Amino acid sequence: MPDLAPTNNAPGLHISKPSPSEPATASAVCHCGASATAKGDAQVGALIAGWNANHGAAHGK
Predict the structure, then answer these.
(1) What is the rounded distance in angstroms from the CA atom of residue 36 to the CA atom of residue 11?
(2) In angstroms, rounded to a whole number, what is the distance separating the alpha carbons of residues 15 and 53?
(3) For burial by CB atoms within 10 Å, which of 11, 13, 45, 47 has the most?
(4) Whether the Cβ atoms of residue 51 and residue 28 lie closer than 8 Å to each other
(5) C-alpha span between 28 and 16 (Å, rounded)
(6) By the 8 A CB rule, do 23 and 42 touch?
């Protein structure tokens, strides 16, 4: 399986939660150059909310 982590050449949002007992992790890279990582369910939720509000399709290319 290829690495699914976003990069400057392939921006996006990647979320992982291997099992219900492990914390979620996430990484995001936007085409505007912003990037972020998070670990833990609450922090991942905040990263997703910020991504949806401010990056990706939210501000166009």
Answers:
(1) 12
(2) 17
(3) 47
(4) yes
(5) 12
(6) no
Residue count of the chain, please give it.
61
pTM: 0.83
pLDDT tens per residue, the chain (61 residues)? 457 788 888 888 999 999 999 999 999 999 888 999 999 999 999 999 999 999 877 776 5
**Alpha-carbon span 13 to 4, nearest angstrom:** 9
Q: Is 27 helix (H, G, I), strand (E, B) or coil?
A: strand
Half-sphere exposure of 21 (CA within 13 A, CB side): 0
How far apart, in whole angstroms, are the C-alpha atoms of residue 30 and residue 55? 6
Q: Where are the alpha helices (DSSP H) in 1-61?
A: 41-54
